[in-house]
Amino acid sequence: MPHSLEKCSISFTPLPDGLLKLADTLYQKNKPTVVILSLTDIPDKTKLTAACWLHPEEYLQLDNFKYEKRHREWLGGRICAKQGLRIFLQQRGNPSHIPEYQQCRISAEESGRPYFSRLKGVDSPFPELSISHSKGCAASLVSQSHCGIDIQYPSESLQKVRERFITNKEERLLHNSLPSQSLLSRLVLTWAGKEAVKKTFSSSRMLGFHEIIVTQILQKTANDAIFYFSRTDIPQQTIPVAAGLLDNGYSLALCCHPLSP
């Protein structure tokens, strides 16, 4: 028996207006849908929550996670993804093809890339999906094309390992383009941006951090910017990413593969 949507209700964190406008402007054709969830907002009665949101096979899979942290991260990511799918389909104006949460199953490719499994009796294709989580937060991005999302806690350790994901030239560009931001904020935005690009193109292969280069940054508000990246293997390709700082200090970055004209 399907659970009512009211019983499955969870409070989600809204995407800041500035970042929402950036995403809609950059990826209008992709129709991106972003959902953010604080993992502390998942009700303590986790089994009841899981029964509301998970496909029976996902429910069994959840039992394989022995550690509470991983358990909540995995569950939170799927809650975000299914809420994102529901919003995406509602916006497309086809309510007859909106499945119950428990009907929808999220699988993973060999690379780890998540996707919505095809539903029996539903012929229309589902959108693309990306999931992220970091220290108590989860997020998902649903889009008409391959996409990537990354939410990142501003850990001080990023300053110690920055040579692993950013060059001196990129760091100077960040300093000049985002002068009002702290070094940690610049680093966490860059990390999230590169992770979003990596996920977007992961269907072919997983790029390394130093294969993704920051070429330009356009600051739009105090906390939001468009990062332009290039790939070392395809230097002529420009990849725009919407990146910003959330109210809780986390960074969030979104990337969608361009759709054919």
If you consult CATH, what is the topology of the largest domain?
Answer: Ribosomal Protein L22, Chain A
What value does the Rg take, in angstroms? 18 Å
Estimate the helix proportion, in percent: 25-40%
- Form type: globular
Give an overview of the whole structure:
The relative contact order is 0.16. This protein is 31% helix and 23% strand. It has helices spanning 17-26, 46-53, 56-62, 68-91, 157-160, 168-177, 183-200; strands at 33-38, 106-108, 114-116, 128-134, 137-143, 147-152, 212-219, 224-231, 239-245, 251-256. A hairpin with a 5-residue loop joins strand 9 (239-245) and strand 10 (251-256). It has 2 domains: 32-144, Ribosomal Protein L22, Chain A (Alpha-Beta Complex); 151-256, 4'-phosphopantetheinyl transferase domain (Ribosomal Protein L22, Chain A). Strands 6-10-9-8-7 form a 5-stranded antiparallel beta sheet, sandwiched between helices. Strands 1-5-4 form a 3-stranded antiparallel beta sheet, with helices on one face.
List the helices and strands and how they pair.
Elements: H1 17-26, E1 33-38, H2 46-53, H3 56-62, H4 68-91, E2 106-108, E3 114-116, E4 128-134, E5 137-143, E6 147-152, H5 157-160, H6 168-177, H7 183-200, E7 212-219, E8 224-231, E9 239-245, E10 251-256
Antiparallel strand pairs: 1-5, 2-3, 4-5, 6-10, 7-8, 8-9, 9-10
Question: Concise description?
Answer:
The protein is α+β, with helices and mostly antiparallel strands. The protein contains 7 helices and 10 strands.
